Amino acid sequence: MSDFAKKLDQYAEVAVRCGLNIQKGQTLWINAPIHAPELVRLIARKAYEAGAKNVHVEWYDDAVTRLKYDLAPDEAFEEYPAWRVKAMEDLAHMDGAYLWIASSDPELLKGVPAGRIAAASRSSGKALAKWREMMTADKFTWSIIGAPSPEWAARVFPDLDRKAAVEALWDAIFRAARIVGDDPVQGWRRHDAELQRRRDLLNRKRYKKLHYRAPGTNLTVALPDGHIWCGGSSENEKGTVFFANMPTEEVFTSPLKEGTSGTVTSTMPLSYQGNLIENFTLTFENGRVTDFKAEKGYEALKTLLEVDEGARYLGEVALVPHESPISQSGIVYYNTLYDENASCHLALGNAYAFCLENGKTMGMEERKAAGLNTSITHVDFMIGSGELDIDGEKEDGTLEPIFRKGNWAF
Amino acid sequence: MSDFAKKLDQYAEVAVRCGLNIQKGQTLWINAPIHAPELVRLIARKAYEAGAKNVHVEWYDDAVTRLKYDLAPDEAFEEYPAWRVKAMEDLAHMDGAYLWIASSDPELLKGVPAGRIAAASRSSGKALAKWREMMTADKFTWSIIGAPSPEWAARVFPDLDRKAAVEALWDAIFRAARIVGDDPVQGWRRHDAELQRRRDLLNRKRYKKLHYRAPGTNLTVALPDGHIWCGGSSENEKGTVFFANMPTEEVFTSPLKEGTSGTVTSTMPLSYQGNLIENFTLTFENGRVTDFKAEKGYEALKTLLEVDEGARYLGEVALVPHESPISQSGIVYYNTLYDENASCHLALGNAYAFCLENGKTMGMEERKAAGLNTSITHVDFMIGSGELDIDGEKEDGTLEPIFRKGNWAF
Fold first, then answer.
1. Do A72 and B40 touch (CB under 8 A)?
2. Do A53 and B72 touch (CB under 8 A)?
């Protein structure tokens, strides 16, 4: 077996045993790019070997997606197929597992009129709202991993030829997903224990507010009573432990919807629905984005902020040390799955219910009452750097350093 | 543009303009193999250009299919996903168009226990019965075309290397689909007119019975009152003209369910659900298969005959001259879409309602009363050769030659 074949096999193994933690009798739904059949077949095989009853692959092709955005009539973006809503909700209700294999060109939708993208986002957001709610409440097992596409690889490694770029991106993806040594499954267990130690420490602190300081950033983020710092593995309703993201390097919680004020500046490009947004700044008052600017992708940022009212508020605050392996690789992936794990980040949009005490069993109105933001979208953006300091403000108003120069202060 | 690129473009054009005849505002659903993205993208582009509102591609991968048959538990084959039934029925009700791109390895399921295949066939047959009924009644537009897979190509051209075999199969598929000259769309219109001339002639004859004679074959097939010979283009409920199969060389009708007697011997291999059945003989009494044998694939044939009671009766009788272009190519495709258009054939299973006067508006019970077979399956098998004679028996018992030595006698 070549080194690549060995790593691909290990990657599939980690996805099935750690990411999804497939249980006997489960149905697995995989969304996968048509150019990664080897990975998909390995995952399907290992899922069946782990006891899956059925593995359904819903393949996607960037080119077909783009053709629709270029050629379909406007009304095509106002609707979302009912059968697909049924497929996703049925999967959740039957205790299925869901795997997304991210692979798209970060600039897939470059040049597409923003109105079309916004309409598509609204339609899918509304149609899948119930399913997404079940997902963020961890009612079922779900995981996101990555696989290179030639277009994505060319963006990450613009100086390499196509074949070499794809190989380099595979290598970077394997490293980011901690596919090292002979037993990466064991490695993931150790990594999980470390993330849990960090999150438990933060949970004991009960900070009321976080204060961010960096060039272009002076931001205060209040946290709701009963917030829970999460990180590492998740647990679904049946008690199955899974990793929603692979890689995952973050410790994160849900902010108080109306408790953010000040200004924050992005430190990495954001690929939002196939458009890059770069060097952007958001200004918050009482939690709401009241002003924004962007050196590149202003229209895409505007589209994002206008998805719904909740898109103007934060839904996540996440801590990732600047010395994390992904950050230290120096690679900009132009893909949130990876870039968010290289950098402290925030998210606009829906807040995670599981980051609040008893949140998993709360209805929408209860979550709102507890101070959580709700939205049909949830988009991470990166604000970490070697110059970022973060303080935690305790109940009594005293400040403690959490991050200094981008890394954990304790 | 290379000659291949030109032909691929023409093939996509013929599929969209003739096969599907896409109308403004239609949704197109394509089932396609993941290894034929160029063809699929061309079809999607041309469909949008013809006014399609949405093109959805449901990709499939033989390897993932086979993994399920090898590794899933038995109960996985007893169910069929409700979301997919909804997808297909919604498509039909919204006047959508459906395209199947056939590409599978003819021996994909070789060695799979027959019980699993039969269970899967029963489950999908039952779940999709309503949709299939709408399909065979031409309630909506549907079409089947082909594209090579490496495995399929290797079977058709076992002496060529993989790349050459795929090229040779593309070439054979283009020829079979009449992708010749500069205007194949016009060529299809001429071909359609010729098929219509044959079918109109047979419709004027009103034969009561057909008598088949060939080595290993001595068969009488009665036709129901009001039978209609069909061939060439079809017409959906809205009056859109389309070709359900590309290629299509046949003139065909529905037999009287209980009116077949005698023995018939196959003249070409039949790929049934991924297993080859070869040199098989069926004996009929009062329409029902009462005895059968096969030199190869006996179990697969048995599985087919046991799908349901209707699988024991004929549902189609089709006339194709031995001198048809596909037949003259001498290529055995191991795929019904092609092989049925190289040879006179019969089908076991469901009869076409549209081959009966007023059949399209008949309910299931009315069709049965009119003498049509009903089944959840419909499988063609080839009986044509250069040695086949067919006579038509008129109302008054006189016989007229229809085929002599495999070709039209008039």
1. no
2. yes
